[in-house]
Recover the amino acids of this structure.
């Protein structure tokens, strides 16, 4: 029977906006060792170095799903999600993990197909997977390095994570469909500050609005309107965090000339008003 081994560290070097680790560690579990049920405030990624185990998670609509996992696979826990994970009785797993978050993390993960309803990591590139694990091990072993050094390796980990997973457009659609989605997302990123609509985005791709909406959601996992709002709110968070602009000016800068409409949209995405979000996230 293997001994239980645990090593972990927390990141205590201040707050970073785009990407920040909160903790990282490694654990060799004993047979049947369980963690949870628990809820996290940030994203938590586990990669299974050896052995097997079971992830029990609530997914969209509070549906409870069990995932049996083994060496070479991984799982992503989402903010607010309730999970329990248990080591196999015969081949208990050893895993390494990183808890992280950032303004663009949600979109980047969704763009490669890692969502609440699809949280299992299965790499399409053994080379990129190996580099990802190397960065995870590096963070665990170099916990006393400087903040910028650790942030840099966190960026490398995240880059290898998203690049080692096949893009949804390659799994679910043709190269032509992938082209349409890239066109649409590019148009949103270039014009989110203006009063654009789903019709404008569809027109840019040359597709019928109805067909475009169905195609976009099947590939990206969200409707074009949801993606547009989410992108605007991400940019709004950047402005709230990094500038002293009044809330009304922030709203106008991301395509909402009406402050009330902006505040409602912001709260629908982040659960709090722009003013409250700024209070919680800006150091005083």
């Amino acid at each position: 029977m293997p001994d239980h081994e645990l090593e972990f560290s927390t990141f205590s070097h201040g707050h970073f906006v785009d990407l920040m680790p909160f903790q990282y560690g490694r654990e060799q579990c004993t047979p049947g060792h369980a963690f949870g049920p628990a809820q996290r405030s940030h994203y938590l990624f586990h990669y299974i170095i050896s052995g097997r185990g079971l992830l029990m998670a609530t997914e969209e609509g509070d549906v409870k799903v069990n995932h049996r996992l083994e060496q070479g696979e991984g799982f992503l826990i989402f903010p607010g999600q309730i999970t329990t994970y248990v080591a196999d009785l015969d081949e208990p797993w050893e895993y390494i993990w990183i808890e992280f978050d950032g303004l663009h993390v949600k979109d980047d993960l969704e763009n490669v197909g890692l969502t609440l309803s699809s949280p299992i990591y299965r790499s399409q590139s053994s080379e990129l997977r190996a580099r990802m694990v190397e960065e995870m091990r590096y963070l665990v072993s170099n916990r006393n390095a400087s903040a910028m050094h650790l942030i840099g390796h966190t960026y490398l980990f995240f880059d290898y994570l998203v690049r080692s997973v096949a893009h949804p457009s390659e799994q679910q659609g043709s190269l032509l469909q992938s082209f349409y989605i890239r066109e649409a997302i590019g148009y949103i990123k270039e014009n989110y500050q203006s009063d654009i609509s789903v019709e404008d985005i569809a027109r840019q791709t040359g597709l019928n609005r109805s067909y475009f909406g169905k195609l976009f959601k099947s590939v990206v996992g969200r409707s074009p309107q949801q993606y547009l709002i989410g992108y605007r709110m991400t940019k709004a968070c950047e402005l709230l965090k990094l500038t002293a602009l009044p809330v009304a000016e922030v709203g106008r800068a991301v395509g909402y000339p009406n402050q009330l409409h902006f505040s409602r949209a912001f709260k629908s995405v982040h659960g709090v008003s722009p003013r409250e979000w700024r209070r919680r996230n800006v150091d005083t």
In short: Residues 168-174 have pLDDT under 50 and may be disordered. The chain has eleven helices and ten strands.
